[in-house]
Amino acid sequence: MKKILLHIILPFIALLATSCDKFLDDRAPQGAVDEALLDQPEQMDALVVAAYAIWISAEDINSSFSMWNYDVRSDDAYKGGNGTEDGDVFHALEVSQGIITTAWNISDIWLRLYNALSRVNLAIEKLEKQSEDSYPLKQQRLAEMRFLRGHGHFLLKRLFKHIVFVDKAGLTQAEYEALTNTSYTNDEGWQAIASDFLFAYDHLPAVQSDKGRPTKAAAAAYLAKTYLYKAYRQDDPATNAVTSINADDLAKVVEYTAPSVLTGYALEADFHNNFRPEPQY
Q1: Helix-, strand-, coil-residue percentages of the chain, each rounded to 5
Q2: What is the DSSP code string of 220-280?
Q3: Residue of 139, 125, 122 lying closest to 200 (CA atoms)
Q4: Alpha-carbon span 235 to 247, nearest angstrom
Q5: Which of 48, 123, 153, 209 has its CA 20 to 30 A from that of 89?
Q6: pTM recorded for the entire structure
Q7: Are the CB atoms for 133 and 60 separated by under 8 Å?
Q8: For residue 108, what are the contacts with CB-CB under 8 A and spacing of at least 6?
């Protein structure tokens, strides 16, 4: 019986393998990126949209680009749930014990943010090749992408402090392997983030016709937040304690939160309004 089955099955496997080979041979590679096509001005909007899209395409409540899950490290949030095993990875953050860097809540946000930065850097690289004549929106779209790059690095630095700063697309294998999270001091890292937001502040309009694109006031708000973090120097590697407070950085916080800068924007009169859904028109 076994011999009979082998005589039946073996020819079938051979036929299947041959069919697969022919099927693959007859198919051209799919999904290859045409670099020459991506350099065309008419592709710039698509690249920019793709850089925006990744921020929502992988969203879920437990591993989001917002930081609410990670605020359990302070008294800003409480994990809650049905015991310590419900959301155990966030319980570890809450009690500062048993934190594993390969746990999904840490490795996933790291992966997502660097994927987002990869798209942003590709858009920046292609935008920089355009002339103002061929793509009149060049500076504004560059400002939007640098705003997103600053945003990505800002979130990473808040979570991990010593991070890899990625500011170019198409890294070679050697360049990729040479990346390190010690390229900048803590202070230099915050300044690199501020530089992206400053470019955005200088080139973004006060009002965007498309909702969702950052404005000049949004860049100012991020500059204030960045300089506030930067002002409190934590350069003691043993304790991460605040070693000094920089007055110039604090002055920048005041500068970018001035009413004249944030025209049309203001703090909510009641804190709970921050959590109300935006009205639908």
Answers
A1: 55, 0, 40
A2: HHHHHHHHHHHHEE---TTT----EE-HHHHHHHHHTT-TTTTTT----SSGGGGGSPPPP
A3: 139
A4: 16
A5: 153
A6: 0.80
A7: no
A8: 63
pLDDT tens-digit series, residues 106-154: 888 888 899 999 999 999 999 999 999 999 999 999 999 999 999 999 9
Say if CB 269 and CB 198 are below 8 A apart. no
**The residue type at 5:** L
Q: To the nearest 10°, the Cα dihedral for 158, 231, 184, 143?
A: 70
End-to-end CA distance of the chain: 73
Q: What count of other Cβ atoms lies within 10 Å of the Cβ of residue 164?
A: 16
Domain definitions of the chain by residue range: 36-183, 184-281
CA quadruple 203, 208, 214, 216: dihedral sign: positive
Task: State the burial class of residue 11 (Cβ atoms within 10 Å of its Cβ: 0-12, 13-18, 19+).
Answer: exposed
Paired with 233 in beta bridges are 244
pLDDT in tens, 17-68: 555 555 555 555 565 556 666 767 778 999 999 999 988 765 555 555 667 7
The residue type found at 107 is S
Nearest residue to 142 (alpha-carbon basis) of 133, 130, 151, 134? 130
To 10 degrees, the CA torsion angle through 124, 125, 127, 130?
A: 160
Q: What angle do CA 85, 159, 191 make, to 5 degrees?
A: 175
